[in-house]
Amino acid sequence: NRGPAAGLVWTLLMFGIISTGIAAASFMNIYSFEKLVTLFIISAAIAIGFSTIALWKQEKPSSQEINRTSNLSEAVKTMLKSKTARRFAIFLLISMFSFFMQDVILEPFGGEVFGLSASTTTRFNSYMGIGLVSAMIIGGTYLIPRFGKRKIATIGCSIIVIGFSALAFSGFTGNSQNINEALILLGIGAGLFTIGSIALMMDLTADQHIGLYIGAWTLVQALAKGPASILSGAFQQMFVSFGFSSGQSYGSVFLIEATGVLVAIYILNGIKVDNFKKEIQPVLRTNPLRTGFE
Length: 294
Description:
The chain is mainly alpha-helical. 79% of the residues lie in helices and 0% in strands. It has helices at residues 2-27, 33-55, 72-80, 83-100, 106-114, 118-122, 124-147, 149-173, 179-203, 210-241, 246-268, 273-286. Helix 8 (149-173) runs antiparallel to helix 9.
């Protein structure tokens, strides 16, 4: 049940992002720096409040003595001995990096290229979120049990490629008519990719060391998202310095993202859960990690 549970958590996360986008757009209907600061303060207060309520008394204090932990480098080496695990880590890194490049340039794209207002571009995440949550719910409850996790993740990546291509076309042609549809399409692809890869990620864990593997996959995602936010803006400015127009520079970045996701699809096709189970069992028998690591 780990896959469905993780899918539910991510679905609720995306629902929160959609709600935040709608609320922020309504609050920022007319942009001002003072309103922006106020929005940050309100958001921080709400986040602290909900986190406190959610985590309150979730874990009871224990008087049990904690076992000595294994060496971290030993644990990482054990995990990386699996070729499938290494391949999946590369898949996550490339796919997440490619997808999250849009995170910081999407709203400036709408403002600079098409002259859209701040309240309009703030709704971009809501359009994407509608497709994302819908796809995650349908994918998790109906599609994955029937077609499999890897296939759904592959279909999601393919739809993401189409969505980025549509955004690139809008940038190169200066036509904003289909932006919302492209964002919804991008959200649908991201939803199927997310629910498929999360369910697959849960299968690519050793039962004795679930915390280690889930932590590693989460770390890979974090390592992808940070550089993606920095390099997407750097790429856009680089294309501008080459003489590209504003629309062409953003469109070129979207094409880079589409290409990266295509590479991720190629890597994903070589990942098989059965191979992972075969690779990891001999390693765990010959080099078991102590229970305390978890």
